[in-house]
Design goal:
Number of strands: 11
Largest sheet: 7 strands, mixed
Strand content: 15-25%
Amino acid sequence: MFKSFKFLGLVVALCTIPPVPAQPNNTAVEIEAIKAHFTQSGLVPASLPNFTASALLTVSYKGLGSIVIGQPVSREQVLYEPNLSLTAVNASMPLQGKFTVVMIDAGPPGSDQSHGQRRHWLVNGATIPASAYLNVSMVGATAVTQYLPPNPPVGDGPHRYAILVFTQPADFFAPADLALANTGGGIFSVGEYARFTKLGAIVAATYFTCQRGPATAVLPSTSPVVSETLPGWKGAAQPTGAMAQKTNSGLIATRNALALFLAPIMGFLAL
C-alpha cells in the first residue's frame, strides 16, 4: 500500500508539471551574432569593412554537415566544395538576381592584411532559386577559382577561412585577370575586388578555422561572443503571442493525455 501511494504521488507530480516556454529561433539575433563573430575574430575590419548580413548562410560539407560559425575543422573534413544555402531574415525581401561567392584565407589572428588575402574560391553569376530555404546554384556561373581546400602551413596556428556571398549588380565587370574560369588561386584583396567590380552588399557570411599542428608562435587572443549581450537577445529569450500559446498548448495536451492514460492504473492502485 505504501508503494502504491508513492507511485500515486509521482503520477500526480508528473501531471501537474507547469508548461515551460521554449526559446524561439530568432534570426535577427543570429545576424547580430555573425557581426560579433567577425569583429571579435579580427576579420572585421582587417579583412572586411563592417557589414550587416540580410540572410543566414549555411555551409554544408559532405561527411561533416553544416558548420557553425568559427568552428575549427581539419583539412580532411573540408576537402571538397560545400553546398551553400541561405535563410532570409525577412521573408518579404526575396533574394533575387546574381551573386558572387568568395572564400578567402585571412591567416591566423593578427595577420598582416595590407596585401590582401589568399583566394580559395571565386564564383561570379551564382543564382538562388526562389524558395523558402534557398540553395545557392552554381549552374551557369563562372568559377574563376574552383574551390581550393584549406592548406595552412604547419605550425602557423588557426587560419580563418571566410565564405562570403555578395549581391552582383547588373553592371558588374570583372577585372581582366579574374574574368575567366579556372584562373586558379592567388593573393587578392576582397575589399578592392568588391569596389572595382561594384559588388553590392554582403548578403551572408560565415567562417571556420583550420590549422595543421600546434602553433609555434604566440598569437593574439580573440574574445568569445557572449549571446546574452547581443541586441535583441533579451526580447528573444521568452516566446510571446502565438508562439507561447502553441508551446503551452502542446505541453498541456501532453500532460492531459498522460493523466488519461494513467487514470486506470491509479484507480487499480487505490484498491
